[in-house]
Amino acid sequence: MGLVERKIREKEELKDSILKAAKKLFLERGFEKTSIRNIADEIEYSPGIIYHYFKDKNEIFHALHTEGFQEMGKRMGILSAIVDPMSRLRAMGKIYIEFGLENQDMYDLMFIIEAPIDHVETRDDLCWSEGDSSFNQLRLTVKECMQKGHFQGHRLEALSFMIWSTVHGMVSLKIRKRVNILEVSEVENIVENSYQSFLMVLDKL
Amino acid sequence: MGLVERKIREKEELKDSILKAAKKLFLERGFEKTSIRNIADEIEYSPGIIYHYFKDKNEIFHALHTEGFQEMGKRMGILSAIVDPMSRLRAMGKIYIEFGLENQDMYDLMFIIEAPIDHVETRDDLCWSEGDSSFNQLRLTVKECMQKGHFQGHRLEALSFMIWSTVHGMVSLKIRKRVNILEVSEVENIVENSYQSFLMVLDKL
DNA sequence: TTGGAAAATTAAACACTGTTCAATTATATT
DNA sequence: AATATAATTGAACAGTGTTTAATTTTCCAA
Asked: What is the fold of A1-54?
């Protein structure tokens, strides 16, 4: 009769509006300063209602972190057009860093803040699927590079993690404000410049 | 007359006991779950007293983060015995990683948590001296390597930051629980193995 | 030894936080 | 229209960092 469906859709709409409000406030004020009451105020409902749509605050921010992966995934889309795995690997790192610097709070949520990963741990399946498929993209590209003769003597898993660590290290030191110790003239573009150093390193492998 | 001195010492003792209690609770339960009231309970004083010794919670954890740098500095002490800068650089990374993995909460405070760095920003001098002198140790070693002909074509500041980023990335991904996506057989020793990959990379430069 | 100034310490309050749950309101079905 | 079901609320609980007025303790000069 369509009525039930409309109800379900309306329920989904409220869930969506909670997520939208949470995202808005999170991007404005950060994780710690976005409270359940703030979110409730934003959607003009009472705080209690939120717990009928989400188990707890962690679940809300897990949902947001998933949105972050979707956005990053979109950006990574162009990679499929790059046939040469080494070029693809370079582009992948560039996109990763650009995404991180342009969406610092989302990056924080995806790779630094504990809330989303704590939520994953409290579930039955307990697998971080978003991280898993992202890392797998990297792993596969590195594998292709190795099949073409690059990175000789390296082990796939360890090298892939090292590459991820390097770009994550750059972005997270920046996000968590540990880069002000660098020479003032370098601070501004340190991540980009440092990634250039990294690319030079990759070339020699 | 010595009395004034004793008073000063007693004041310092209370300040120290606050720090000791804060450290104990922090290492037991983490940053978020260590409250001013918890610390006050631990030292058997009322919560208010803490604000006569520290401006706010950030200042307490800035003091703790400084202790972390002292401990790491101690470990780095043996580096002065290593004459060859490349060997010294390798050892530096190893010590950094070992320190991070063996003192995850302290590492968190030093390089991930915002509290200590937020406190630095609210002061007049606003320089992160602990980070500065640590990074300078790295910078000087990399410089020596370059003077010996290594890392040709690289820029000192960018390369030093890249090296720091790589080890920081490894440790921080581990601490913030983003490594469970790796092959199960690799998770355990991924940081160490990945650092081995990094050393192989350094060798080729 | 005592009086009063100075310092140390406390208790209470403020405005928050995440979360739970009984009570209420709104909706849907018979 | 009455009832069953679902949606929503408001109040409460136990906690948070921080401030401030009031209290206690300590110190020193008379």
From this structure: Arc Repressor Mutant, subunit A (1.10.10)
